[in-house]
Amino acid sequence: MKLTLRVWRQKNADAEGAMSTYEVDGISPDMSFLEMLDTLNEELILKGEEPVAFDHDCREGICGACSLVINGDAHGPERTTTCQLHMRSFQDGDTIDVEPWRASAFPVIKDLVVDRSAFDRIIQAGGYITAPTGAAPEAHATPVPKPDADFAFEHAECIGCGACVAACPNGAAMLFTSAKVNHLNVLPQGAPERETRVLDMVAQMDEEGFGGCTLTGECATACPKGIPLMSITSMNKEWLRATRKVAKR
Fold first, then answer.
1. Residue 55, Cβ neighbours under 10 Å: how many?
2. Beta 95-99 vs 108-110: how paired, if at all?
3. Can you tell me the distance from the alpha carbon of 9 to that of 18, in angstroms, rounded to the nearest whole number?
4. Lowest mean pLDDT among 24-28, 63-67, 81-85, 243-247
5. Contacts of 175 (CB under 8 A, 6+ apart)
6. What confidence tens digit (pLDDT) does each residue in 127-143 have?
7. What CA–CA distance (Å, rounded) separates 71 from 232?
């Protein structure tokens, strides 16, 4: 396959960025998208040019580090992570635009790499449980109803890639935050911080500068792990419940 790539290049956070055009040839349809970028970078290095900076880690669709906007879609044309997107999803001769996440809360560090530490701070605000230290508790000591366990597992699948933010026209982080809140709030282990968790995490989300949610649904459509849109509704209910409970104290 021969492809034309239009890639966002930006030297650093303070520099002006622009799209640069590159031609790559000999691309196998079985390559992953990141392997194709590796091929581009090898050619750039041989020419003495600066390679394209992009994030990656596990390359197994688990960590979410590989986040890119490809032809205007978060992670590209398939509902998967960028590292699991293969070049057979494109045609020989295609022109492909490759950009970083676009959100004020995710500032560009260099080229396609953005700073997603805002997600870390949301987690730090309440994404934990109070647990006694010492030996591991008996697995069946705290029974969890099957529907609650399924609900928790569904939300625990969130890998924090930020596709929901990149796809949202408002740059909202509601799907990410709701996944982290709902995952713990439905379990008995998360009960001690149930109210403070949702209030603190939502407050931190707002402080980070993410946009407001208008339930357009683009976040759930782009999510590679299928976190449902109803997750946001569940978190809103948790937030109202916590607000009323705190107000009565």
1. 21
2. unpaired
3. 6
4. 243-247
5. 164, 219, 220, 223, 227, 229, 231, 232
6. 998 877 777 777 778 88
7. 27
Write the pLDDT tens digit of every residue in 202-245. Answer: 999 999 999 999 999 999 999 999 999 999 999 999 999 999 98
The C-alpha atoms of residue 8 and residue 135 are separated, in whole angstroms, by 50
What is the structure's pLDDT at 48?
97
Q: Which residue has the tokens 């209030």?
A: 199
Contact indicator for 3, 24 with CB cutoff of 8 Å: yes
Span 29-61, pLDDT tens digits: 999 999 999 999 999 999 999 999 999 999 999
CB 53 within 8 A of CB 8: no
Query: What's the 3-state SS for 77-109?
Result: CCCCCHHHCEHHHCCCCCEEEEECCCCCCCCEE
Q: Which residues contact 208 (CB under 8 A, 6 or more apart)?
A: 105, 118, 121, 122, 173
Contacts of residue 107, defined as CB under 8 A and 6 or more positions apart, other chains included, come to 13, 114, 115
